[in-house]
Each structure stands twice: as C-alpha cells, then as structure tokens.
Write a structure and sequence with these properties.
Elements (H helix, E strand, L loop, with lengths): L5 H71 L13 H11 L8 E6 L4 E4 L13 H8 L3 E7 L8 E8 L7 E8 L1 H9 L7 E6 L4 E5 L11 H8 L2 E7 L6 E8 L5 E8 H4 L1 H83 L1
Antiparallel strand pairs: 1-2, 1-5, 3-4, 4-5, 6-7, 6-10, 8-9, 9-10
Helix pairs in contact: 1-2, 1-7
C-alpha cells in the first residue's frame, strides 16, 4: 500500500487553515464591534453624567444664593428669636422673602422653620414637612453646619418626592432656625427624558459619603459606599464603568461626574442590554448575510476534501494493483527462467548420454 500523497495533504491542511482563519476573523470582528459599541455607550453615559452635573450644579448654586438672601432678609427682621413666630411681622417677612427668592428656579419651593423646628413662611409649591426638628438635616444645621443637602424624603412611589437643601439661619453661635429649598425628584426624570434615557436607565445624585440623594426612578435612600462607584472615584473624579446595580440588580453602563464645589456625584446609568441593542441588531443582520457565505465556503472546502480523499483512495488502489501486477510478472519471469533452466539441463544431459554411448 502506497503512502498518502503529500500534495493532497498540503491542500487539505491549507483548506482547513483557510476555514479556521475565516472563523477567527469573524470572531475578531464581532469582538471589536462589541467593544466599539460598549465604548460608545460608555461615552454616551459619561456625557449624560456631565449634563446632569452641569444642570444640578446650576440648581445648587441658585438655591444656595437664594438661601443666602433669605438668611440676610429674615435675620434683619429677627425671625426665629425669642418670642416665637406669633410675635413676628409675617407680612414684612413675606415681602422680604419675595425679593430674596425671585431667582429661585422654577419648580423649587422654600420653607422657613424656627429654632424649635416650627414652620414659618413657605412657598405654595413647598410640600408639608412634618417633624422637621427630628430630621438629620435640622440636627446637623443646629449643630453648626452652615449648609446641608439632604436625601430624598417621602416614599419612592409617593406623589412628588423631593430632596432638600437647608441653610442655618443666624450668625456665629446664635441659631435662629433653618431655611429649606425643596427640589423635586421629577427634575431628574425630566432630564433623563431630555437625554433620551429609556426604561431601565437611571439618573442619580449621590453624596460624597455614599448616600443616594435622589434617583430617577425614585428609590429609598441607600448607602453606595464600598461599591464600584467609589472604586471608580478613587481612580478619577469622572469617568465610566460597568456594574450590576445594588439597588435593583440590573446590569448597567455607568457614567459619573463630580460636581465642582459640591460634595455630590452626578450619575447617568444606561441599561446594558438597551445600550447594546444596536450591536445585537447589527450582529443578527451580519449573521444573516455572513453565515450562508461561511457555510458555502465550508461546504466547498468539505466537498473538495472529499473528492481529494476519493482520488487518494483510487491512487492507492491503482498503486496496489500496479505492485500486484509487478509481483505477478516477477513470479512469471522467475518460473519461466526456472523452466528454461530445467529444459537446458535436460538437453545437456541428453547430449552427455549420446557422447558416452558413442565412446562405449
């Protein structure tokens, strides 16, 4: 039996190598397209976080200026000092507040509370805040902090949840009460709609201590310290990362941006499946177009290899037949030679017998 044809073996190896290279190239293209689409989604989330940071940086600055003017206005009128609210000139206070809050952004409300946490004047849009004296915001301001941003109050599914920016009223050790600006959480949802964030994506504000100030869709305040957000913040004040949300377990691509002058981080998180829907759509379309081509090339290579295998088996059979014929011819030659040798020997013996007979 002859050995395999080296040329056919080389052709087979080349065909298999071509098929492998085609599959590898397809895998590389898919991986590169996935990475490009994910990078695009990360850039989009990062830019969205910057927009959120810019918007709420302006809201916080405007609110802080209004609270400062409220402090100046009501301090001159003696708001919150001994005697209680009943002794105050509410009409004069109201007029002073009207000038102080004229630059308050639309949709925001304000409220005043004296040193015991009792309500004073407030805007019509300000929600009712029960037990202000028991709030952490009130305790921190009373303890000496000048300005505090408080997490969302109220149930996430309640009507118009808000978060607060509060300011201590009074100078030095004197505590006359607090002024509060209420910021509706719905501002985050409006901003998310403007950014084109669909269902599954979120927009949030997180304090530097990890507490969620506000989120759209709303959730109860929770502590994010020790999560991927603070790992990312340790590397850079703004950027993006992938994570599974500790709030609802959804995988998201997160962009974050630290607000300058505020201990707050703006977060825009895109649902990973939604963000990559373009990639999966393009992959499906490419598969519909490419798979028949790959299958056709693979079938041609398989068919070629099959024909080569048949040709090789025929060659091997022909070689075996040729070797068998050669063997038979050699056997015939050998036997003819032996027979001729025998005849020659007999003739020689006959000649010897005649010569001996004559001599006798």
């Amino acid at each position: 039996m002859g050995s395999a044809n080296p040329a056919s073996g080389a052709i087979r190896a080349t065909g298999l190598a071509m098929l492998s290279m085609l599959a590898l190239l397809s895998a590389i293209l898919v991986a590169e397209n996935y990475s490009a689409e994910r990078a695009k989604a990360a850039i989009s989330a990062h830019r969205a976080a910057h927009v959120v940071a810019t918007q709420f940086g302006w809201v916080f600055e405007a609110s802080a200026h209004v609270l400062g003017r409220i402090d100046d206005s009501v301090s001159r009128l003696g708001f919150g000092r001994a005697g209680g609210l009943a002794a105050r000139d509410l009409d004069g206070t109201s007029a002073a507040l009207g000038a102080a809050v004229r630059d308050l952004p639309a949709g925001l409300g304000y409220s005043l509370f004296d040193s015991l946490g009792r309500p004073g004047l407030s805007s019509p849009t300000a929600p009712h805040l029960p037990d202000v004296a028991g709030m952490e915001l009130f305790r921190r301001l009373k303890a000496g902090e000048k300005q505090v941003i408080s997490p969302m109050i109220g149930a996430p599914d309640g009507p118009d949840p808000v978060f607060l920016m509060g300011r201590r009223l009074g100078d030095g050790a004197e505590f006359h009460g607090i002024a509060i600006v209420t910021i509706p959480v719905s501002m985050l949802q409006s901003l998310a709609d403007t950014l084109g964030f669909v269902e599954g994506s979120t927009v949030s504000l997180v304090a530097s201590d990890g507490m969620v100030i506000a989120r759209s869709p709303p959730i109860r305040p929770m502590d994010l310290s020790g999560t991927a957000l603070f790992d990312a913040l340790a590397r850079a004040p703004n950027g993006s990362y992938d994570t599974v949300s500790p709030a609802d377990g959804v995988a998201r691509i997160v962009g974050y941006w630290t607000l300058p002058n505020w201990q707050v981080v703006a977060i825009a998180a895109r649902d990973r499946d939604t963000a990559l829907v373009g990639f999966w759509r393009n992959l499906g379309l490419s598969a519909v177009l490419a798979l028949p081509i790959i299958f056709g090339v693979g079938w041609l290579i398989y068919d070629l290899l099959h024909l080569m295998a048949l040709d090789e088996r025929r060659r091997e059979a022909l070689t075996a037949a040729h070797e068998r014929t050669n063997f038979l011819l050699r056997e015939i030659h050998h036997r003819v030679k032996n027979n001729l040798s025998t005849v020659t020997s007999l003739i020689r013996l006959r000649s010897e017998e005649r010569r001996v007979g004559k001599e006798c």
